[in-house]
């Protein structure tokens, strides 16, 4: 079942890489982005090891259950609310940005809020399904889209526009120290394992994590491609001019013999799929965190029908996301996104270490029991 | 003998075990056979009648008639029974009697799922005949046939067939519970039963498979599925099923492997075309005409330029027309059957285009949608899919290409969340082994 | 009950969406596709832009010469405004989704192209793979030309700039992405193909390239030089390399490989360029190669080297860098104040070209 773990890891990688992350990284291309890209997989890999070996001690348990083992109810509730808000914000940012992209490229005269509303309704429908279902959705979407992603990457590397000199120029700035923000945005790619906070529930009890080294490695390669390819195509200067960098990059590619000519469409298709899935997964996690706040919450990873409270929580989240979108504009999204990236990184690191410590504690408890 | 048989054989509703005692002589005769497999006339003529008349010492009959063979080894019992022999115990000796019956000649030809190389016949409306061919196709002592009656008024006989070693107990319980909760006065066809058993009320996709083919049933049994045979219907129900079973024709096992693989791929392409093409037509024509190359775009514009109303009206007109055509060719009496297709397909099609009411590209789209719908091998699924294009059109009208993708996404979600009697309906299986465990833990790996 | 509530909620949102969106819904036959655009300098001082749009008119018959177009021209204060005003000149919605060719007038390009290019990149419906060129003597005249044998509106120019039809060694294809990059990149300057009209038969000729410094045309190369430059850059983009002459030989280039290094030096930085090409003979007196192979190859190498040197020096003198020496210099050496130091370094740069010719064959004759 390691493949499900990898899906959760890579959906995070793929869906963020084309949006939030390149923005901050390319701005800092001469000021530490390269070093951030080099360092983040190492630290991300260490965190992945700590987190997974921590979670392994608690088979079939999510965060709410694990923390309830050690701490009083009120503390667990505060922590879970915090985590839920964290993930909720990231999905809100993603879903808003994609609504903007869709409006820009596919439906320029359409109403952004209407598109947004439908996007969110679809995601809400997906997110209220059972945990197992969400896993299947994730799997099927990734299986369908990874060939397309591969095709886009292949095409973008093999385009005659590619200038290796520009890439070398940027790569030579590897000695610059990154700012916290740049580092945080590179790190974001490597924190997909956090989804296990809920999805650990569905992994079978005799589950062992395998090939953990490959996760950060692949994510690192993807990150390198998404960072350097636009630089190779747009040059070292014009690369920061684009709001939607990867859309512009995909639009620069041409399929000479394809049924359709513009690569942009394939890219948009992938992006819609990935963003929807990311939001479905994210909201599902938030939903489960919020559900754990209820006093007698029954955890069922494959319920036939979602309980009423799922719908109520979901409606609340839709409203909150909508309000967020109404109240802020594109510029504040970027600013908030920056702040959020840093806070999120700190929270991920904290929780990872926390779970690791808890797992050691549990093992020690067992040993004591065994000795006594 | 009968006591021992009970131990060896799985409890089967169709296993007849009789103990006859002659009222005058007090002789005892034990008789066991599978009802669907044998010709009851023969049993009467050769066993029960001579035994009861007792004009001739029965033992002598057994010994002298070459149709009776003495059986010494109890290990062969089940095999003999399954091959259409009746077992007789008389005076502590066991004989087998060949009363084999094949009912193949009584069957009508398969109409819904035709095949070139596979068996040509469908099940029968007589459940005994159906059971006969099922027993003959799946010769195993593990086969269990339960019988129950459904319908408060009709008390229609329903046979529940499964391989007791392979079947998933959880699934079986679910089926039994579900059947027990069916409360309807009249149950007359398998389709009706299907609707009743089909999970939720507003289910989008069928979660059980209706088939008339014996080879499909045999295969399903060997995979541990449950088969329901209803009296008076020549269709059986197979459950649980996955989405992929519906994409699979029985023929796939009989023909060249590479072509088969290509055909399966083709079916998925057809699935995509039939559900999205009208939506894509609306989206591309009205929202995103920059999708295609210049040449194609201008051909589209040229063919559309005489059509007086927006693209979606055009699409809806044509789709309604094709649905009516399909519907009329089912309902129309067989004698005048071909008229509607001729009128609709040939005359209306070309006339409507010449009159400038519909663009010629739309005609192509409509026919492509209809044709690719028929590529799907199972009728119930093909019907379910036929509906899918309409919501996508609605999405396309409001949101263009993005709407089409959104619509597909909704379908994927709904497919993934469907369960067919506890089994995951739509998932990529990969290497799921019981040793490693499956996600969720509740799944039937 | 719950479900019905859900359903009605969904329905109401959809309905609201339909009403709110005002619908981007616009049928394909209610749109005019821009198949070519020209931007010229306006004659009026207050309206510096003269915008020409070529709109494709769909026709049911598709045959050579049956293509119909409508050309609209307007002078405006800005490009965006001009396009918006043009909408009032036509009965259908103007759609740039298929605008693959955008021409800038010659005099316009001698002023500044940056603003126009920025406008194009900013518009979402102009593709990044649109080809940009310079229309000579002005863009409007080129756009107005209706080639006699065109099948689809505006297709002729499109085909010139798409690599799947004609592949000429004289034609440079400059896509919007690349142009934007070259305008802003330090150490890489833009170039644009120059399109002229052959008036006898209403066709286009594209055999010269204009070299620009960051914003305007500095020099226009002759066809022969254009082909040479195309050969020098072509190893990445083309499969057609064209030919060159060195009496009595005409050579067709089949393949070309170029490696160059930049050597840093305070007095004279040096570009060491190694050109390796495989050639076949297209024209020569019979037996002239076989009688003296080494001599012939040496003569060809010599001639090619001289041509390349001349071209590079001409470009250097013009002070532009379409080849990207500056970019390579940045990649090799650290140069923090590129903008100030580079022009000086470039002007002092020396070129050392070595050509190696490999003869593949002499055609069907000896």
Short description:
Chain B has helices spanning 2-8, 40-53, 58-64, 77-82, 127-137, 169-180, 190-197, 214-222, 243-246, 257-286, 294-304, 311-331, 337-354, 360-375, 379-417; strands at 15-21, 28-34, 68-71, 85-90, 93-98, 143-150, 156-163, 209-211, 226-230, 236-239, 419-420, 423-424. Chain B is an alpha+beta fold and 445 residues long. A five-stranded antiparallel β-sheet of chain B has the order 1-2-4-5-3. In chain B, strands 6-7-9-10-8 form a five-stranded antiparallel β-sheet, sandwiched between helices.
Mean pLDDT of chain A: 87
CATH architecture of chain A: Up-down Bundle
Could you list the spans of chain C in which at least 5 consecutive residues all have pLDDT below 50? none
**Overall pLDDT of chain C:** 83
Please identify which CATH superfamily of chain A we are dealing with: Amino acid/polyamine transporter I
Low-confidence stretches of chain A: none
What's the total helix number of chain A? 15
- Structure annotation, total helices of chain C: 12
Number of domains of chain C: 2
User: What structural class do helix, strand and pairing data of chain C support?
Assistant: alpha/beta
> How big is the Rg of chain A?
21 Å
Distance between the termini of chain C: 91 Å
Report the helical percentage of chain C.
Answer: 25-40%
The description of the largest β-sheet of chain C is: 9 strands, mixed
The main pleated sheet of chain A reads as: none
Determine the fraction of residues in helical runs of chain A and give it as a percent range.
Answer: over 70%
Output the CATH class name of chain A.
Answer: Mainly Alpha
Describe this structure in words.
The complex is a heterotrimer of chains A (about 375), B (about 450) and C (about 375). Chain A is mainly α and about 375 residues long. Chain A contains 15 helices and no strands. Chain A has one domain (about 1-370): Amino acid/polyamine transporter I (Up-down Bundle). Chain B is α+β, with helices and mostly antiparallel strands and about 450 residues long. Chain B folds into three domains: about 1-100, no CATH class; about 105-240, no CATH class; about 255-425, no CATH class. Chain B contains 15 helices and twelve strands. Chain B has helices at about 1-10, 40-55, 60-65, 75-80, 125-135, 170-180, 190-195, 215-220, 245, 255-285, 295-305, 310-330, 335-355, 360-375, 380-415; strands spanning about 15-20, 30-35, 70, 85-90, 95-100, 145-150, 155-165, 210, 225-230, 235-240, 420, 425. Chain B has a five-stranded antiparallel β-sheet. Chain B has a five-stranded antiparallel β-sheet with strand order 6-7-9-10-8, sandwiched between helices. Chain B has a two-stranded antiparallel ribbon with strand order 11-12. In chain B, a hairpin with a 5-residue loop joins strand 9 and strand 10. Chain B is elongated. In chain C, strands 1, 2, 3, 4, 5, 6, 7, 8 and 9 form a nine-stranded mixed β-sheet that branches. In chain C, strands 10-11-12-13 form a four-stranded mixed β-sheet, sandwiched between helices. Chain C is of the alpha/beta class and about 375 residues long. Chain C is globular and about 85 Å long. In chain C, helix 4 packs across helix 7 (about 175-185). The chains are: A mainly alpha (about 375), B alpha+beta (about 450), C alpha/beta (about 375). The interface of A and C includes residues 105, 233, 234 and 248 of A.
């Amino acid at each position: 079942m390691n493949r499900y773990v990898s899906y959760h890891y890579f959906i995070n990688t793929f869906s963020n890489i084309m949006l939030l992350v390149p923005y901050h990284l390319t701005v800092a291309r001469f000021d530490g982005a390269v070093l951030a890209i080099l360092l983040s997989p190492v630290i991300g890999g260490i965190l992945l090891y700590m987190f997974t070996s921590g979670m392994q001690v608690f088979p079939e348990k999510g965060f709410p259950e694990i923390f309830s083992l050690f701490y009083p109810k009120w503390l667990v509730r505060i922590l879970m609310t915090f985590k839920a808000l964290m993930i909720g914000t990231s999905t809100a940012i993603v879903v808003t940005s994609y609504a903007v992209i869709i409006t820009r490229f596919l439906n320029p005269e359409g109403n952004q809020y209407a598109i947004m509303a439908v996007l969110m309704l679809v995601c809400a429908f997906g997110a209220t399904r059972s945990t197992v279902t969400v896993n299947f959705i994730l799997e099927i979407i990734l299986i369908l889209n990874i060939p397309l992603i591969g095709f886009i990457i292949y095409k973008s590397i093999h385009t005659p526009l590619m200038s290796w000199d520009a890439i070398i120029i940027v790569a030579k700035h590897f000695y610059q120290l990154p700012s916290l923000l740049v580092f945080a945005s590179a790190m974001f790619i490597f924190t997909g394992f956090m989804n296990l906070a809920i999805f650990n529930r569905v992994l079978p009890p005799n589950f062992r994590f395998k090939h953990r080294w490959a996760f950060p490695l692949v994510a690192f390669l993807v990150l390198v491609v998404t960072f350097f390819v636009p630089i190779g195509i747009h040059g070292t200067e014009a690369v920061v001019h684009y709001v939607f960098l990867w859309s512009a990059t995909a639009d620069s590619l041409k399929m000479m013999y394809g049924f359709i000519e513009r690569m942009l469409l394939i890219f948009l298709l992938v992006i819609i799929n990935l963003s929807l899935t990311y939001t479905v997964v994210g909201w599902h996690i938030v939903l489960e965190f919020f559900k754990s706040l209820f006093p007698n919450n029954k955890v069922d990873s494959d319920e036939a029908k979602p309980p009423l409270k799922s719908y109520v929580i979901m409606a609340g989240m839709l409203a909150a996301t909508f309000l967020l979108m109404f109240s802020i504009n594109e510029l504040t999204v970027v600013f908030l996104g920056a702040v959020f990236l840093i806070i999120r990184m700190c929270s991920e690191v904290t929780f990872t270490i926390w779970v690791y410590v808890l797992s050691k504690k549990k093992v020690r408890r067992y040993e004591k029991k065994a000795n006594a | 003998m009968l006591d021992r048989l009970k131990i060896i054989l799985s409890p089967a509703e169709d296993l007849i075990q009789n103990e006859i005692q002659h009222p005058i002589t007090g002789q005892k005769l034990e008789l066991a056979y599978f009802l669907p497999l044998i010709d009851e006339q023969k049993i009467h003529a050769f066993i029960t009648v001579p035994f009861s008349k007792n004009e001739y010492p029965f033992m002598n009959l057994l010994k002298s008639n070459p149709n009776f063979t003495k059986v010494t080894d109890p290990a062969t019992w089940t095999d003999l029974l399954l091959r259409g022999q009746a077992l007789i115990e008389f005076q502590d000796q066991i004989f087998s009697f060949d009363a084999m019956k094949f009912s193949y000649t009584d069957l009508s030809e398969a109409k819904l799922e035709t095949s070139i190389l596979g068996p040509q016949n469908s099940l029968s409306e007589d459940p005994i005949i159906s059971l006969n061919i099922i027993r003959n196709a799946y010769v195993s002592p593990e086969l269990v046939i339960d019988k129950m009656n459904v319908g408060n008024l009709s008390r229609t006989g329903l046979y529940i067939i499964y391989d007791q070693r392979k079947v998933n107990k959880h699934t079986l319980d679910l089926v039994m519970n579900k059947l027990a909760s069916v409360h309807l006065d009249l149950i007359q066809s398998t389709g009706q039963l299907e609707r009743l058993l089909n999970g939720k009320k507003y289910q989008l996709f069928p979660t059980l498979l209706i088939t008339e083919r014996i080879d499909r049933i045999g295969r399903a049994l060997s995979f541990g599925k449950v088969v329901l045979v209803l009296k008076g219907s020549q269709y059986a129900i197979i459950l649980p099923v996955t989405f992929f079973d519906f994409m699979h024709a029985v023929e796939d096992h009989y023909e060249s492997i590479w072509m088969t693989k290509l055909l399966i791929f083709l079916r998925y392409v057809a699935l995509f075309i039939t559900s999205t093409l009208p939506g894509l037509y609306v989206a591309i024509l009205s929202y995103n005409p920059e999708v295609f190359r210049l040449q194609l775009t201008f051909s589209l514009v040229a063919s559309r330029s005489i059509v007086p109303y927006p693209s979606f009206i055009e699409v809806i007109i044509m789709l309604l027309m094709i649905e009516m055509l399909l519907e009329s060719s089912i309902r129309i009496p067989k004698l005048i059957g071909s008229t509607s297709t001729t009128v609709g397909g040939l005359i209306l099609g070309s006339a409507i285009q010449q009159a400038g009411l519909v663009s010629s590209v739309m005609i192509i789209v409509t026919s492509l949608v209809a044709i690719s719908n028929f590529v799907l091998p199972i009728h119930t699924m093909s019907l379910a899919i036929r509906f899918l294009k309409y919501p996508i059109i609605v999405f396309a009208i409001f949101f263009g290409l993005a709407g089409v993708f959104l619509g597909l996404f909704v379908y994927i979600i709904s497919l993934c969340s469907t369960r067919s009697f506890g089994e995951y309906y739509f998932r990529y299986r990969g290497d799921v082994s019981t040793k490693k465990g499956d996600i969720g833990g509740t799944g039937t790996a | 009950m719950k479900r019905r509530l859900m359903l009605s909620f969904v329905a109401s949102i959809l309905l609201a969406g339909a009403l709110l969106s005002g619908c981007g819904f616009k049928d394909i036959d209610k749109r005019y596709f821009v198949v070519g655009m020209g931007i010229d300098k306006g004659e009026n001082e207050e309206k510096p832009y003269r915008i020409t749009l070529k709109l494709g008119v769909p026709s049911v018959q598709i045959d050579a010469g049956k293509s119909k177009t409508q050309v609209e021209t307007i002078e405006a204060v800005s490009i965006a405004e001009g396009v918006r005003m043009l909408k009032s000149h036509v009965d259908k919605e103007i759609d740039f989704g298929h605008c693959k060719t955008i021409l800038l007038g010659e005099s316009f390009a001698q002023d500044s192209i940056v603003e126009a290019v920025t406008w194009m990149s900013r518009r979402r419906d102009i593709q990044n793979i649109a080809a940009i060129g310079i229309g000579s003597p002005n863009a409007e005249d080129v756009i107005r030309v209706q080639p006699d044998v065109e099948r689809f509106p505006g297709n002729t120019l499109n085909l010139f700039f798409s690599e799947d039809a004609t592949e000429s060694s004289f034609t440079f294809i400059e896509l919007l992405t690349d142009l934007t990059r070259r305008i802003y990149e330090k150490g890489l300057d833009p170039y644009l193909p120059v399109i002229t009209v052959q008036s006898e038969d209403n066709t286009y000729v594209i055999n010269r390239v204009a070299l620009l410094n960051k914003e305007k045309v500095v020099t226009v190369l002759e066809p022969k030089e254009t082909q040479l430059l195309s050969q020098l850059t072509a190893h990445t983009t083309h499969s057609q390399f064209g030919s060159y002459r060195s009496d009595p030989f005409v050579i067709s280039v089949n393949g070309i490989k170029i490696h160059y290094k930049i050597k840093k030096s305070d007095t004279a930085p040096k570009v060491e360029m190694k050109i390796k090409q495989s050639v076949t003979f297209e024209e020569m007196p019979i037996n002239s190669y076989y009688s003296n192979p080494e001599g012939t190859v040496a003569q060809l190498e010599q001639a090619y080297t001289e041509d390349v040197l001349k071209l590079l020096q001409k470009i250097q003198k013009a002070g532009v860098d379409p080849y990207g020496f500056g970019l390579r210099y940045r990649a090799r050496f650290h140069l923090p104040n590129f903008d100030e130091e580079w022009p000086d370094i470039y002007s002092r740069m020396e070129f050392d070209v070595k050509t190696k010719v490999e003869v593949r064959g002499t055609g069907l004759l000896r």
